Amino acid sequence: MSNDLEIVKCTNLKPKPEKDQIPFGRTFTDHMFIMDYETDKGWFEPRIIPYEPITLDPAAMIFHYGQTVFEGLKAYRSGDRILLFRPEKNFERLNRSSERLSIPPIDEERVMEYLKELVSLEKDWVPSTPGTSLYIRPYIIATEPNLSVAPSHTYKLMIILSPVGSYFSGGLTPVKISVEDKFTRAVKGGTGMAKTAGNYSSAYQAQAKAYKDGNADVLWLDGVEKRFIEEVGSMNIFFKINGEVVTPALNGSILQGITRMSVIELLKKWDIPVTERKVSIEELYQLSEKGLLEEAFGTGTAAVISPVGELNWQGKKIVINNHEIGELSQKLYDTITGIQTGKLEDRYEWTIAVK
Ligand SMILES: *Cc1c(COP(=O)(O)O)cnc(C)c1O
């Protein structure tokens, strides 16, 4: 299948990081994957090469108009096996993001084979301490040297790998989140549904404001009325209200998380009512006053499930479950991480083993 893949191995391997001292996103493995695109040729020359800087023309379109998309997923160690969690969903989403950014699609199955080859070659980089994993970052950049405001005719797809430590070193910890009522992340018809660079750098100001007041992240509201809940920085959000689970419906401005999808599927299997709908911040405030807001948690590849203990909105504090981890949040965390690491039976065929 991937016999067109060229592999150039590295001769001096880097030292692996110490077990529990792996800061997020700053250590990279020995090899990377790269493939080029030209309009006349399509995607060509898939190769795994030593991890190294790349050379780009200063006029490369990525630098000027931000034509780029990315993905984020993880490889987990399960004894001698390395498992990927629903990776085909990431490549489907990469293509959806690309479509929005006028980037040509990739062949999802072919790229999946290249990813497996890369992870297999870098197997020893998948850490083994509980909670650790190998973060996988596929991304595409526009490379044509051209200042015209138009889609590039050339691109690079790259995949880099980075070992990551445990998100919660001392077990799940509920976080404080600030509800942003001035800045907007995305609006319907914009790029909110795509994993594209500009959505993230445009959030830094709101993020800084939230951190200053001791919050771990920002909860975004809809860009038009500033009433309806969208999502957290890089997590989707769920609320348990009087026994029912509610999450904002996908509306074009919210990122369609794979953890979100998995949580919804699990809740349905467990016969716990789950609804995707509009949820306003006033509604949450009123529910919490009545004692009906039972749990809140964020979902995303980084933390899997991140319990929310407090929402700060216009000087009002919404305390959830007395800052304690909810039973459902813990059960979802244990189930998903159990499947990801092979400790629990994978009944839904969510994992793929890398040889
Ligand atoms: C990546 C991301 C998520 C979570 O998606 P997962 O597939 O669950 O990791 C949620 N929101 C935003 C804005 C994201 O970038």
In summary, what is this structure?
By secondary structure, the chain is an alpha+beta fold.
Would you write up a description of this structure?
The protein is of the alpha+beta class and 355 residues long. It folds into two domains: 159 residues, Aminotransferase class 4, branched-chain amino acid transferase, N-terminal domain (D-amino Acid Aminotransferase, Chain A, domain 1, 2-Layer Sandwich), CATH 3.30.470; 166 residues, D-amino Acid Aminotransferase, subunit A, domain 2 (D-amino Acid Aminotransferase, Chain A, domain 2, Alpha-Beta Barrel), CATH 3.20.10.10. The chain has eight helices and 18 strands. The strands form two sheets. Strands 1, 2, 3, 4, 5, 6, 7, 8 and 18 form a nine-stranded mixed sheet that branches. Strand 2 and strand 3 form a beta hairpin. The model has no long low-confidence stretch (mean pLDDT 96). The site of pyridoxal-5'-phosphate has 14 residues, from helix 6 and strand 15. Pyridoxal-5'-phosphate binds next to helix 6 and strand 15.
